[in-house]
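Researcher: Structure prediction, please.
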Amino acid sequence: MNPTATGTNVHVTPDQVHATLAKHMLADGFDFVLDLDKSEGVWIWDSRGKKKLMDFFSFFASNPVGMNHPGVKTPEFTARRAAALVNASRSGVFGGTNAAPGKCRPITSMSTWLLFAVP
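Model: Predicted structure follows.
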């Protein structure tokens, strides 16, 4: 099975994540496994150690609103995020939606996955 192929369902348990990644790349990052669903605000959930950790790292400040902020769960924001993800690699290039008054603002021109700040 090719884990990168479209349509495959590959599951790696939290205790296998670092060892699996180390087979294919240098995996010398933090010694926890981030659970994006259980993390909230400044608290990140380590699914390997099964504990909450306070986030002082914030992914080099590319995650300024914390994890799962309520403002990024709205249908309007989800629709804008989907459009941004389809056209993600546009460093330094902005579309009209980046400047819509009161709707969204660009966080940084270098961000390719989080293009909008919470109003």
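Model: The mean pLDDT is 73.
Researcher: Thanks, that helps.
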